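Internal QA ticket QA-208
Title: Verify multi-chain structure generation after dependency bump
Assignee: T.L.

Test input:
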Amino acid sequence: MGGPEIERLIALLSRLPGYGPRSARRAALTLLRQPQSRLLPLASAMEQAARTVRTCSLCGNLDSRDPCAICTDPGRDQALICVVEGVGDLWALERASVHRGLYHVLGGTLSALGGTGPDDLSTQPLLSRIEAGGVREVILALGATVEGATTTHWLAERLAGFGVTVSRVGQGVPMGGALDVLDDGTLAAALMARRV
Amino acid sequence: MGGPEIERLIALLSRLPGYGPRSARRAALTLLRQPQSRLLPLASAMEQAARTVRTCSLCGNLDSRDPCAICTDPGRDQALICVVEGVGDLWALERASVHRGLYHVLGGTLSALGGTGPDDLSTQPLLSRIEAGGVREVILALGATVEGATTTHWLAERLAGFGVTVSRVGQGVPMGGALDVLDDGTLAAALMARRV
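Actual output:
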């Protein structure tokens, strides 16, 4: 079916998130139809990203420079650190332009089922950053899942005694959300977080 | 958000079939997390495919050699040509191992809405192959759509007078298909195609 090159391309494409054998074949055909304008640019972008993108040694963000553009931005509040589970969460907050401080990527959440323990998370680098001084507040922005809540609770205890304010992101009704489609947990959280 | 390399990777990934900005970001993160085992192999497979894969000058198939492996296979019936719309259809027939002859990729179907006329299809190469002699039968294996049926009808007329048998793929109830979920057109075709 077109030689080993096509077979290999389809096999690797089928491992992309959300892709299977069928969609991988479709993607391979689309790309092979325009090798110069589609296939080669994507291959070169991947090669270049693999060569340049590194994990920021300060916060765990992905960037082509280390420390990353966020850590070295003098316009950001260096005393405010937002702790997120992964780089995808950091990207989401950056797209929303709602956080003007720094980040710390934890690299996961505590999960007994997933086998993620305290040693698998990037906690020590966060503590070192706080111990180095200059940090006023740490915002724990983990997901409202069982694992996220567990990790938030555990991390808040670890950060106690460091002399920094530890806050958590608010929970409740999401913007544009109708109450009758929300789950019981969200409704309970929204009622608990009511303001006067 | 991670520098121009990541932005470019996401932008190009989001143009993959079935992908949008959100899934492209997810794929970029997955790939960037394993640059050596995921990102670079995919980049190299793409680069290699772009460099080696060509359109077969005889049948229009995609292969790393020209003429393609199917056209040069001495074990296949050289007198039987199956006409398909695209390389994806050829792949589907090859996966099913149901055709032991050669192929001809038409490169599309006649479509007034899509602006595809007779000159946009690879008809002349097919006629040349038939004129060169040795062809016994041409199977028209186009989709059972309005465009497919139009093209089948038009192509059958063009092939009349060349002294070859022109056949069409059968229409009816697909394997494993229950009658009560089929559309009226398929049911009508299945009744018309009944056998005793």
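Spot checks passed. The longest strand of chain A covers residues 77-84.
Status: verified.
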